[in-house]
Fold these 2 entries.
Entry 1:
Amino acid sequence: MKQWYVLLAAALLGHASLHAQIPIMPATGGKQGAAAGARGGANGQRQMPQIGHVYGKLVDADTKKPIGYAAVALLKLRDSSVVTGMLTKENGEFNFENLPFGTFNMRITFMGYGSIYKKVAISPQTMDQDLGNLKMRPDSKLLGTVEVTGQKSAFTMGIDKKVFNVDRNLVSVGGTAQDVLKNVPAVNVDIDGNVTVRNASPTIFVDGKPSTLTLDQIPADAIESVELITNPSARYDAEGMSGILNIVLKKNRRAGINGMVTAGIGTGDKYNGGGNINVRQGKVNVFANYMVNANRNWGDGTTDRTNYLNGDTSFLHQQSNSRSTPTFQFGRVGLDYYLDNRNTISVSQNIVDGNFKNYEDLRSTFNKGDSLSNRINNNKFGFRNYTTALDFKHTFAEPNRELSASVNYNYSTNNRNGDFNTQPLTPDGLPTGQAALQNNHSDGKTTFITAQTDYTDPIGKNGKLELGLKTTLRNYSSIYNVYDQDSITKGYTFNDLLSNDYKYKEQIYAGYVNYSGTVGNFGYQGGLRVEQYVYSGEIPSEGMKFKPTKATPGFFPSIYLSQKFKNDQELQLNYSRRVTRPNFFQLIPYRDYTDPLNQREGNPNLKPEYTNSLEFSYAKNWKNSNFLGSIYYRNTNNLLSTISVPLGKDTLLTTFVNADKNNSYGAELTGKKTFFGIWDVTANVNLYRTEISVTQDKEVFKNSNFSWNAKLNSETKLPANFTLQISGNYQAPTIALPNNSAGGGGGGRGGGGGGFMMVPTSAQGTIKGFSSMDIGLKKDFLKNKTASLTLALSDVFNTRQYELNQVAPAFSQDYIRKRESRILRLTFAYRFGKFDAQIFKRKNTKAERENMQNIQGEQSF
């Protein structure tokens, strides 16, 4: 009897699937896919991606035993036509892949049991859905509903998280992560790649984990999305004043074989290319990608400084121009192994390689022409970064119950070799005297290990408990040696004053608990994170060791309250406490004389800064638009800041200090609107005030400022498969806050410093306002839009530059830097793919093969 039912169910599903709308991957052929593409081109609508994944298990409601060979079909809501279908396995499991975004009815039938109907919605937030154990009852009906709404767009807003989908960002194609973040609402990137959110530094993750990679080392084409969490819960690391920026790398999950190749060229000798491939069948998913980016770029800058000491006034003017020829290579390979529907093991390996040739010409003029000097710096810099990640995830039959564990191992090395040639000049600019030649060499390495486990368990009908543990271990070492050339013998002598070496270790042990629930339309969440920080360092050449410092365990609470109203409105109030710890470069008590006119020195007495962040938000969604408004307040104790003081007639010393007071408060407004179904506009405005006070040698420096910045992103679908994107931003004058990030493992102090390059100060400096605009045009062509050409122009009006003005009783300074920013890029991309049910296919019985053929129908490509 059972065999007859299996054959009957398979035949019915096979017949139904002949008339179904089959999910077509964008890179594949097929009549329906072509028709859908033609319709999309005609009405300007983008074909939705088909990467949904829904799975579950069918069991007997009374015996709890699995029900095999039951018919599971996914139906359209509009006309109940079959989208796809299958028979459950012998253990009761079913699994649907390559589903398009949308809402469907799932129908499950088996002889002797009542049918099950369940509404299922596929969206960017629910691409993977575990429906749990579905219970079938003899001669009864079980109705279930899963309601999720949302459409994939360039920018998705939520009160707790904002997601920027990079594949929709045309103006960053062929660039780096810096170019991506420049176009993310609420995020600002300066010309050195330093990132701020609401005028403060966030913590930057890659795939949810800390990384030693810098933003210019990550190709834009390797990024899937960027997640911005302005006020993270206790589940996340406490590090970062203004929250977390998580860069999510691409990881294809479509079944069969598919991928993409790209190639691009830009003005000023800029080239990029690469590709990715994914192979998935059954329990195995293998993915790999490779990107190469070779760019020539330039930078210019000036510094005008006046020192006032003991009634004596002296002047310094510096003019610099630099050229750089970096080459980056980014490779990634990984494997997902699906033990079953609810257990997955993933392993991935990243390798990033970079090589630079840098040239800088710095001319210094003292006291308006009394004396001059010219310094030329030629150096080569290289790095290699390896990241290995191992992840395990187990989902339980109960919805939203999950256990995960991961280990991340990162190892990076860097080296630098170069020469500084300083030539004195006469007032007429002619060489005079003997030139001073210095050679520098540096080596550095970093080992960065993180291990964590997280558990989520629903409590009752509306509650959820989250628990987790995390360990972070970081070891860093660096050697920086400088040699002076003897003008007569031409031999080199070791310069002990400029050379240095150091090592340090950081350990962070953390645990958290988080509980959330709802009462009607009221939601709440409370959590506590505890972190133990251990730090130790040494300077081997000096025989100096800094004893391990065990800071008092830090307690970081977070509270979220929300209230939903009619017409899709929501209010939310949240609070969190965060920390930013000084890095070794800020703590090391030695002075950097690499540029004698701009010296730097660390401060071993620095304390961690602690931030209390409060945010009140309102969100409203309409059919074709949404709005998010937030009012926030930030109070930071012991803010890590900098102070500059003059030394002599022409030298400036910059040191790190803890500020006495720092308050920041403001309002951020973000809106997204779709006009006429073809024009998407996202606008973001942040208005804020910052107040800071620093005491240095009994002298108090105060600075306060009201400022604002705005971003506007516009995307228009044009006829003939063209898409136009315009992005503009403006930053009003603001206080110059220092960047507190540890960086990506630089090769020693002074490794790349130009004479005018110095750390901006917050209590003494103001950055002038600036604006910029980017534009991109994309043309899709070939069958199913498998190929595209993108033409992008960054900084259309060439207005992006950095200008800092400092005024203090002992000195004043104007500091301007300009890097190449107006770049025209042309990029070609071709997507390919084919669904193949036989890849890695195990040997099946004849009956199983026949059933699969009947069920798949026209799903094969």
Entry 2:
Amino acid sequence: MLASHREYPAVLRILLVLLCWPLLAWAEPAALPLRPAYTGEQQAWLRAHPQLRVGLIMQAPWAQFDRRQQLLSGANVELMTRLLQAMQVEPQWLRFSEQAELEAALARGEVDLAPGLQQTPAGLRRWRYSDPYMRVPQLVVGERRGSSAVDLDRLGRDDKVAVRGPGPTFEYLRNTHGNLLLQTVANERAALDLLLSQEVSYAVVDEARLSLLLREPQFAGLSIVGDIGLPQLLRIASRRDEPLLADIVRTTLQAMPARELDRLQSTWFPLNTRGLGNPLAFWKGLSLLLVLGLGGTALSLAYLRRQRRFLERQLSEARGVLSQREEAEQALRLSQFSIDHSTVGILWVNWDSHLRYANLAAERMLGYAPGALVDLPLQRLQPGMTMQRWLDLWRQARGGNEALPGFEVDCLRADGSSLPVALSLSFLRFGLSEYLVVFVTDITERRRAQAALEESEARLKGIAGNVPGLVFRLERAGVGQVVDFAYISEASLELVGWPAAELQRRERGIRSLVHPQDQEAYERSQALALDKDRDWYWQGRILTRAGELRWADIKATARSLGEGRVVWDGIVWDITENKQVELELADSRARLRELAAHLESVREEEKARIAREVHDELGQVLTVLKLETAMCELAFAGQVEGLDERLASMKKLIANLFQLVRDVATALRPPILDAGIASAIEWQVRRFEARTQIPCLVEVPDNLPALSDAKAIGLFRILQEALTNVMRHAGAHSVQVYLRVEAGELCLWVIDDGKGFDPAQRKAGQSFGLVGMQERIFMLGGQLQIDSQPGEGTTLTARVTLDTEEVA
């Protein structure tokens, strides 16, 4: 191109440029079809998606809708129409009143593309952004006071600036121009209204909104007097889950000539031509005449167009460089903003221990005004930081590859008060300068929390030390982790003779104290509590360091802390004295039961002996008396007056006495027991049914194993007492009695449909019959269960174990 440039004389080139440039500026060439170089994968994706959903935020001049003509127009509409034509896809326009609605639609998966968005850290989690295609500056509007632009840094407190807020522009002005007195407004129109009413000196409005507002008559007299230096870099955003779509948009944008984007901006934001008049008409006519007169201008026109394309490419490259520089500057401003507003104080210190930089957090923390910390020696903040100590730290940090370990010190604030801080140091080389970066963290709350924790631990140790037992804590860090004793009180020395530190060792613990015969029960109860994350209870024998045997009671409460972490807080009580009393009491009760069983056995034997004597001896006497009476009746019948009546009366008395003797003998020991417990039970139930007229159902096995006499008599007496209770208290209409063998046990059920009762409300002294049955079954080594509810009858179950020889 440069070679062709030298082919024309310099004068001709200058003449052609002067004559034809207005024509070229006026007669803009028609937009040529875009021909992006898509890859095969991108072309396949476009064929699979013949329609794309485009989200538009309806805000003029970016996007607006004519309800009469039902047409969309605007800068974003025209841009997306051009791009989608190049992609050969159809748009589906989606209109939104604000960006929040657009973001909600994106979250629902209803939007594919959205033009005119700015890249933000939050937006990067939802969108994929293209390169900037348009730069919209933030302009300062006001009265022009001279030919130079307004410098915001030189404005005083008397000059108010109206800006829409809150928002990025407001935050930028507040953080970068601390001298400005900002007035927040709801929208740009309100800002210009305040400017017209002279309530503010200047207003900050973006170029797009300003191009619309300046068309209104009331704002026609306002002027653009400056630029704040924070342009809006507009990009096309695409769905995050479609990276191929983002690449297609980027390729299509790169294929669009820069002049088309300039034309788009000048068409919708015509600020650059406002108030300049229209001096081009003369040049248009003159250029047309000259073109008609000079046939050689065609060659010049081609040359100029080539030059224009060359300049456009250079301009596009320059814009790309400027855009990258602006992005870098914006990133730098964001980084500086993040550092200044960090919660951690940052100090840059030179080798001579003087401060070269301090962020806002450090200044606020130490109570200094902005910039007051610079050039202060570090010893002013920390008196113990002598020059020698500082140089030692400097050499360690400069010679090592890692940051120095942090430490805690007390710093002096500007008002002389002390501030506890944590310091960490890191060496930094910036250009030709070297610094030691000091990170300062306020640990006042940490110190308070630590003091409170130490006080709480001391209080806990004091309480645990005075508890008459061993206090402990078991901890499990997570699921499947080993359980360790995190704490054992010093009472262990008094209880078992071992110090707490010894018992906290993983190979020791409380299990090392357990008696060998109780180890299995201890480990089983502990494993059950640890596996199920529930409370732990165990009672057994332990051995002290001196070999002394003691009884211990362990109770621990489980508490889940989340994420599989569980702690058990418990105490080990010395229950040796109570256990000895309990064992002695149990032994005494066992002896009493043995004595009662012996007495009951003796009483049954005595009853059997008396029954035999009554039946045999008294029966023989009564038989003799009956014979003698019969002999008298035969010898003296009808001879003595009144003797026959007396002998008949004596025979009746003797018969009644025979029945009485049989009843007494049966009451003492029914002879039916000699036929087996099954026959005795059936006989007793039928006798009860005949006496009370209550229907009874009885079931006994045909082949019942042999049962010892003591157990047979015991079950029979329990049945007698149960039937007596039914007769006296139940008010039953029927009774069921079952005798069965189940799992090596002989079971007796007595079931009635009476009024029932609540076993929990039995009063002492009112149920000796039940107590007698319970004691009798205990003496037999069996179990007695009574199930009853008011109005639902009563079920009595007695179980005795069959001996091996009995089962056989």
